[in-house]
Amino acid sequence: MPEIPEIETVRYHLEQKLQGQVISAVTVNREKALNVSTGDFSSAIVNQQVSTIGRRAKQIIISLANGYSLVVHFMLEGYVRLFYNHEEIQATPSVSLVLASGEKLAFYKLNLGYLHLVPGSDFASMPELAGLGPEPLSAEFSLAFFLNLLAKRKGMIKPLLMDQEFLAGIGNVYSNETLFCSRIRPERKTSQLTAEERTNLYYCIRDILTRAIKLGGVYEEKFTSDDTLTGGFEPHLQVAYRTGKPCYICGTLIETKRVGGRNAFYCPVCQR
Q1: Which residues are catalytic?
Q2: Among residues 9, 73, 170, 244, which one has the fewest Cβ atoms lying within 10 Å of its Cβ?
Q3: What is the overall mean pLDDT for the chain?
């Protein structure tokens, strides 16, 4: 599932290619991906200009000039692809938009994900975004703020980092990477972390996410045929999906175990 770096990379691409464009036509092949009828969806967005592209947690908000917004959640397998004028849409997208420029924006595999039409662009008022925790890269997310959040929790640290009500936008990949960065075992109880470990964890969260965004995350699906940004962070992964390979720090083989129902990747020597 894409996390903050992957979604932020998509948001950046959409801002570059979609913002300011006018939607001229819509094709819906999977109406279940919508929260309204195909007719209502088309009526609300056709001939409308895209005003801004935002992100909240793992969701993208495409705001239109008429006050409506499209909230996109890719969930496990979804992705979006822009096709240039000379390119034909590949396969069968769940939903596709034709732009006045002739380019096509195709949303694929929204089987569990969705493309919802909502009135307004106030993120806080959208039910799709209700209950989400703070953004770990926001200015408000200070060390003191994080330590205060952590002080109230007692469970295992990896599931906690993935809890969207605790922190918004971190999933399996970056919880593994930040725990390796801070040298903490994924099954450690939050209440047992030292003051130094808690501080290190805070800075690792922000550092890993910032670097991953800069390098385009680990998403496999390219946004355009000439996209050279997406997926650039994958060679920099330290533990995620590296089971049986040597740790870059100590040479010990990376191990995997189930923690909180998810695979946790870690170095048994570097992490304590």
Answers
A1: 2-3, 58, 262
A2: 244
A3: 96
